[in-house]
Amino acid sequence: MNFSNYRLSLDIHETESGLSLRAKKGDTIRKIYVTLMDGGVPYRITPDCTAAFTARKPDNTILFNDAVIENNAIVYELTPQTTATAGQVRCEVRLYGGDGRLITSPRFFLDVDDTVFTEGDEVVSEDEYTILEDAIDEVHQAVADAKAEVDQVVEDFQKRVDSGEFTDEVSNSFLHKSGGTMSGDIAMDGHKVTGLGTPTEPGDAVSKSAMEKALEELTGGSIPVSVENGGTGATSAADARTNLGAVSKTGDTMTGRLILPTLRLNPDSDFPTLEIYSGGSLIATLSWNRNTRRTQIRNNCPDTDYREVFSTPSADSDLTEDKYYDLLTSKSPVTVVQGGTGATTAAAARDNLGVSGALKLTTVWTNSSPESAFAAQTLSLSEASGLDVAFWIVEYRGLASDTGSVLTTMAFPGHGTVSYYHIDSKIMSRNVEFSGTSAVFKDCSNGTAAENTYIVPFRIYAVHRA
Predict the structure, then answer these.
(1) What is the mean pLDDT of the chain?
(2) Highest mean pLDDT among 127-131, 257-261, 325-329
């Protein structure tokens, strides 16, 4: 029987063509030829393309079936499911490229008319996917074919193994998973060997846990690594410092010199010294003398004597309280040219600098019996101790019997021993000497103490620089 053919031209620029084909329910001897147009020009179908016919029947069941490509046309042969239900079937054809891309034709319609007579069992309408079914069949067949080929290869290889063909080659080139002997090294390339069993023989591989357990059993958890092997040879920080010849940063005792780029410490117990270098040459030292208990800074520059900057207590005593010491001592006064005074006392400093200090009047002695005769004696002027006295002032009255005499004052130079003789003031053959912090009233002619004196001193004042 010959096929009845439908021929359609569908422009791929449209979505619905409005074309309708007619068939009777159950017809199968019909083909649909679809020529695709591209804007009125035939669309050329390349050899790598495949085609499919898709449709939705009046009962909403789906068709997704194979179509073939002949002479640049897509040809679909109606299946019993295509015409299984009377009514309008909405149809499309799809064209797949070799790269998986898709072009779908405009929609067209197949009107299926019911028949007045049904011959035999009527076809029940259902979904039909011949493309998927064919693909599944092809996969199953491919799997079956591949399995058969693998089985054949395995069978052939087993026969060759059984014949002993590969015995020596396999034994010498590969290690069987059930065990064997290696004849070369294994490079793990950073990968781990895991799952090691408990070692029992000297040559067995050891896991980390087994090694840690052995270390703990042997040494209580620690095996010191020797210095020669990059360790400290110790199990404590103190022993490690000893083995390495290091000192603790929290404090320690050194037995040699500590050499820094510009400083060196000489830890000599009797004369510890901090040496300061410049350009490789010793330029200064800071040292302490155990015997004299003196701290010294020595300038080692050419033609320069050392200077003692700080003094400490004498060797037979210890510090019992905080004390402060002058920066410069009497051994080396700083000259005026160097910005100092060139002196070790305030008076000498004023003389060297050509300045005078402010004068101050201080009472250094008071007569406890101002109305009594004043016998020759030595007066202690202890209140004048430590004062830079410019001159003394004596306040006195005439004869002891002359109670009505007016008080008189007389000045005496304050430096050195001074003798004074004054007739007009009724001292008369009496000598007054000032020496240090004492005043002596005595006979002027023979130097002996007189029974009494013609004057009665009331007060003695020291005029001194503040």
Answers:
(1) 77
(2) 127-131
Amino acid, single-letter form, for residue 427: I
User: Which positions ≥6 away from 49 have C-beta within 8 Å?
Assistant: 69, 95, 96, 97, 98
Residue appearing with tokens 């998927």: 132
Q: How far is CA 354 from CA 341, 348, 349, 413, in A?
A: 10, 10, 8, 20
319: tokens are 């510090």
Split at pLDDT 50, 70, 90, the class of 427 is very low
Measured CA to CA in angstroms, residue 321 lies from 291, 310, 317, 326 at distances of 21, 17, 12, 16
Give the chain's count of helices (H) and strands (E).
Answer: 5, 24
Please give the angle made by the CA atoms of 129, 135 and 139, to the nearest 5 degrees. 145
Cβ-contact 297, 284 below 8 angstroms: yes
Residue holding tokens 């005593």?
Answer: 317
Q: State the Cα–Cα distance between residues 363 and 433, nearest whole angstrom.
A: 18
Nearest CA among 5, 115, 124, 130 for reference residue 55: 130
| CA distance linking residue 454 with residue 399, whole number of Å | 5
What does the angle CA 95 – CA 98 – CA 102 come to, to the nearest 5 degrees? 35
255-259, 264-268, 282-286 — most confident range: 282-286
Residue labelled with tokens 């109670």: 403
CATH class of 4-136: mainly beta
Closest to 73 measured CA to CA, from 102, 25, 31, 110: 31
Cα separation of 428 and 408, whole Å?
Answer: 15
Question: Which tokens go with 379?
Answer: 């007066």
Q: Identify the CA nearest to 86 among candidates 108, 113, 104, 105.
A: 113
- In 174-226, which residue ranges form alpha helices assigned H by DSSP? 208-219
pTM over 0.70: no
Q: Are strands 16-24 and 107-113 parallel, antiparallel or unpaired?
A: parallel
Backbone angles phi and psi of 351, in degrees to 5: -65, -45
The model's pLDDT over 149-171, given as tens digits with 9 standing for 90+, comes to: 888 888 888 887 777 776 666 66
